Every structure is written in C-alpha cells, then in structure tokens.
Amino acid sequence: MDFFSILSEDRIKKAYKDGEFDNLPGYGKPLPFDDLSSVPENLRMAYRIMKNAGFTDEENQMKKEMLTIEDLIKQCEDQDEKKALQKKLNEKMLRFNSMMSKRRQNTNSSLFKNYEEKINNKLF
Is the model more confident about 97 or about 11? Predict the structure, then answer.
C-alpha cells in the first residue's frame, strides 16, 4: 500500500470509531440498485463517476441536439428555415440553461453565444 492509501484508511477507521458515519442518510439501508447492465463493463466506473458528479444522459443528449442544430444552421441556405432552426436552438439553449441553473452549475458556455448574437441583432 502506498502512503495515501494508508492515510485514508486510518482516517476512515478513526471516523468510524468516532461515530461520524452513524447518522448518515440511508444508514442501515441497502444501497439503491444502480443498473449499469447497458453500459460496457470497461466504461462502468467512468459512467458512475460522471453520474455522481451530476452529468446526466439528458444533459448530454441536449448538448448533442444543440450541436446538431448549429451544424444545420451553418449548412442551411434558406433564410426562413434558418430562422426556424435558430428559434429551435434558442429554445434548447434556454431549457439547457434552466436545467444547469437548477443544479447550480455555471452556464457561461460558448453554446449560448448564438443567443447573445440574436439579442444584439434585435437591439441594433
């Protein structure tokens, strides 16, 4: 064992002896079943870490959709269709922004740059 493993084990043992784990939520109850059968075995640990850090499939799906719409806007030549796609992108960005703010995560992302441009275009 390396130094950090020994140190962490000692701290866990001390906390256990001091009763710091006695009043945790869910104490004495089984852990919730985490079905990762659809995730390949070699990716399960990374998936669990991302999930525990607050990254969700819904968030990833929404980011993919926004990037797809941005690509469509770049390729689109019809102005009416471009406006409709921009409106759809703005709605997705607002929904994503709302989702991130509920988790109290920073939403200052380059994804919202298009929304800022649209507001500037309407103002000027």
Answer: 11
